Amino acid sequence: KAGVTQTPRYLIKTRGQQVTLSCSPISGHRSVSWYQQTPGQGLQFLFEYFSETQRNKGNFPGRFSGRQFSNSRSEMNVSTLELGDSALYLCASSLGRAGETQYFGPGTRLLVL
Amino acid sequence: GENVEQHPSTLSVQEGDSAVIKCTYSDSASNYFPWYKQELGKGPQLIIDIRSNVGEKKDQRIAVTLNKTAKHFSLHITETQPEDSAVYFCAARNTGANSKLTFGKGITLSVRP
Fold this sequence. Notes:
heterodimer, A: 7-stranded mixed beta sheet, B: 6-stranded mixed beta sheet
């Protein structure tokens, strides 16, 4: 079974631009969670989607948004990029029930200049 | 919300020795505790997990113990090998409507050949 895939793997943007990242979960998984990973803050939860609905949200500004499609694929969008948004963005999928094991993708490395 | 602390932040062991990584959590209602290994340029990979109704779980050279009273859990790696060198993250999942995984800051394990 194929793992979680994320595209693109690397991205360079400038301040003020917006970016869209994509995540395809493991086949059969209905929940997708997004995390931001930085050296200083570690892994921080952004949001979780299940059956096209946002089920939970972390403490990030409204510039960070996401959505999930009927095939469980998910996208996250960051608008008006800031230098501090440079990070590794990780997507994790699970079957969907609370407490289920999450499997991570390789991440998208975003650099904001 | 849940707070997960991981210590030490770095650990260096000689090949063949054992390594123990400890984490504490704050929410006594948390009921799921996974451990992830992250190698350079990759996403976190689940190596073992434990649920709150179990005190210990073992998988070959890796074991996890959970002390619910003290709210801490530990990862034990025996007969360490150079390929065990990586960053290890612990996490705890709280219960309720806003259930999510909260991660520790990670520990860098170096296994000296």
